Amino acid sequence: MKQNIRIFIARYKFIWLLTSMILLTLSAQAQQANHEKVLQQLDEVITKKASFRTERETTISQLKQQLHYATTEEDKYKLCNELLGLYLHYQADSALYYINKKSEYALLLNKPECHDEIIINRAEVMGVMGMYNEALAELQQISPSKLDKKNLIYYYFTARTCYGWLADYTIGHDAKQKYLHLTDLYRDSIMNSIDSGVDRNIVLAERFILSAQPDKALPMLNQMLTTSLDLRQKAYIYYTLSMAYEVKNEPDMQIYYLAQTAIIDLSTSVREYASLQKLARLIYRHGDLKRAYSYLSCSMEDAVACNARLRFAEVTEFYPIIDHAYSQKEAQEKRMVVILLLCMGILAVLLIILASYLYYGLKKLSITRKHLYLSNKELQAANESLAQTGKIKEVYIARYLDRCVSYLEKLEQYRRSLEKLAMTSRIDDLFKAIRSEQFLRDERKNFYNEFDKSFLELFPNFIEDFNKLLTDEGKIYPKPGEILNTELRIFALIRLGVTDANRIAHFLGYSLATVYNYRSKIRNRAKGDKDHFEQEVMNL
Q1: Cβ-contact 214, 240 below 8 angstroms
Q2: What is the dihedral of CA 352, 356, 358, 359, to 10 degrees?
Q3: What is the pTM of this model?
Q4: Fewer beta carbons within 10 Å, N or C terminal of the chain?
Q5: What does R_g of the chain's alpha carbons equal in angstroms?
Q6: How many CA atoms lie within 13 A of 487 on its CB side?
Q7: Torsion region of 528: left, alpha or beta (phi above 0 gives left; psi -120 to 50 gives alpha)
Q8: How do residues 484-501 score in pLDDT, each as one tens digit?
Q9: What tens digit of pLDDT does each residue of 182-221 get?
Q10: Are the CB atoms for 247 and 103 separated by under 8 Å?
Q11: Residue 117 burial by CB count (10 A; 0-12/13-18/19+): exposed, middle or buried?
């Protein structure tokens, strides 16, 4: 029976372990996909750092007000303790000030346990400030056996932290090993003193990681994330997860959890932290120099503001490398910009030269074939503007071909009439006929009538639609006997796509100034934007 139970338990453990590994793998893949997303979140938090600092300063200011108006020594002691907690990883000098204030109120309260708490407080703050020997000297004043459970756990945590910092700060191998050993001893003391819970599990997971057993730590840490946690505990778990993935040599996951830790640190306005500068180093190795420089600059600013010497030393050790690389990258980018600008300038000059050559070449050609060129250009412009609809093409091509044939026939008739006058020696009548402009006026009038009829056949509502674009005082209507007047005819040409003033003037037989005056006068009557008035006409 017992053997069956053992087999069942072994199978259950195997299934649980396999399931955990599958879930961890899926979780790792999901976190890896969110790698860039969490870094973007961190970037956003850094931009809002000032607002988070303002929130903490507001809270501190409120507590100082309460302390000022507090009447009992016990209330003052509690408020100083709260201010100490707010200043501890934010501004170490101020934290030390409120420890001294706590000490003053503790003497008046006559509570011996407060004396031990204040000594540990002072050691903790001195550790943050990098005064490790002074911090350990404070701790040596305490007899652990005389501490209550709360202060004993606090004492072990502070001692472990100080020796851990000393190990990080020490270069010599023997001294480093000594401090690491003491750190392990105090970690064991914490394990023996804390009841089961999140804080104990974090310390246990840390022990597994430092003993090169990250796979034992990961299920514990991930399971804790599913429970109810405060931000401090969540930050510790994220940072411990990053340590686990560092041992497993999975930098993507390490980056993810360091970024999560940094988000909590910065959003709670903590200034003494290790997450962001450690993340900056990893990001630098991944080639994201801009982010690495930004993160390290942020870390240095906070370390100086907090007076956290160890963190400042960590940053300054690596900052010159990133700063030099960032400066080189900026210089290289500037060189590339200069090179690109030079290339663009050269290309622009070449294009200007080519354009000038083409312009003068076309100008020479236009001199020799000016009249034919203008006629073809007008026909081409008319055809292009009419290309949008088959109806426009059919109507205008047919009408103007007929008009050209009719015009040629009339020219032939006119030539024959002049020939008859010359043959009959009617010189006076001949000169009179040559000098008369009536023929041209009649032909031009007929031409415009044909144009107006053709246009209104294609756009029967043009006059009504055109007047909708004008103010009530500026509306234009043809006089009796007219189909289109000069203003309407100008904008009829614009509707057909003939927008060039020279072409309009040539078409209507007016000077360029006259066409400009007409167009300007009508634009000033527009209801809407005058600059877009002609475009609106083209869209009728």
Answers
A1: no
A2: 130
A3: 0.55
A4: N
A5: 45
A6: 18
A7: beta
A8: 888 888 888 888 888 888
A9: 999 998 898 888 877 888 888 889 989 988 999 999 999 9
A10: no
A11: buried
